[in-house]
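Title: Comparing notes on inverse folding

I've been comparing how different people in this forum approach sequence design from structure. To keep things fair, I'm posting one structure and asking everyone to reply with a full sequence. Here's the target:
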């Protein structure tokens, strides 16, 4: 049993960060469903989410420097904060590429990958809540891992189809890059899940 006092402010920061990640993921998914014009409209909001995430991570790092006893290992806290921020960065990057590449119409596999990202982020939010409440996190983390495997399968299938098509080279490169960055976002979600599992094993 862990008898050390808990600084709930850190958990508030992590939940704020997780909420941003979830909001951004659902914005990305809905924006993609709205098409290219929809993505143009949400691009500034995605940038704002990314900046807000940076502010939270700075607050966490600043508080770590002035707190003697933390709710779990300070290095793990830094790793978790950075991993969450990486998810936001990846989603903002995906949004930028869609707008910059003028991907229109949005292909169905991109919609599927975005939905997997949103589902992964929802599971991460639940895992962080469970971590704060000292409840099991494993089911939420397994769900993130399952979704990453599913996203990887979608990416491999669609890339095989792309390279077997007669699509022009520029469009092929744009779509290949888009599918890769979306799949990599699920990788970043899996990184967060791995950190959460590690923290849970050490502290719950």
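Reply #1:
Here's my take.
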């Amino acid at each position: 049993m862990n008898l050390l006092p808990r600084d709930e402010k850190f958990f508030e920061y992590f939940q704020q960060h997780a909420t941003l990640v979830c909001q951004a993921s659902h914005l990305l998914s809905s924006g993609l469903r709205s098409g290219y014009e929809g993505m143009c409209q949400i691009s500034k909001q995605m940038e704002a989410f990314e900046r807000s995430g940076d502010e939270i991570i700075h607050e966490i790092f600043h508080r770590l420097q002035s707190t003697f006893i933390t709710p779990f290992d300070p290095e793990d806290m830094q790793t978790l904060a950075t991993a969450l921020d990486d998810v936001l960065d990846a989603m903002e990057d995906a949004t930028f590429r869609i707008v910059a590449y003028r991907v229109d119409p949005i292909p169905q596999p991109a919609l599927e990958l975005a939905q997997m990202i949103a589902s992964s982020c929802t599971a991460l939010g639940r895992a962080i809540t469970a971590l704060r409440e000292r409840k099991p996190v494993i089911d939420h983390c397994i769900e993130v891992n399952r979704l990453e495997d599913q996203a990887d399968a979608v990416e491999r299938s669609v890339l095989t189809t792309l390279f077997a098509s007669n699509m022009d080279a520029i469009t092929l490169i744009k779509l290949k890059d888009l599918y890769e960055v979306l799949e990599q976002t699920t990788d970043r979600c899996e990184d967060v899940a791995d950190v959460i599992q590690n923290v849970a094993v050490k502290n719950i």
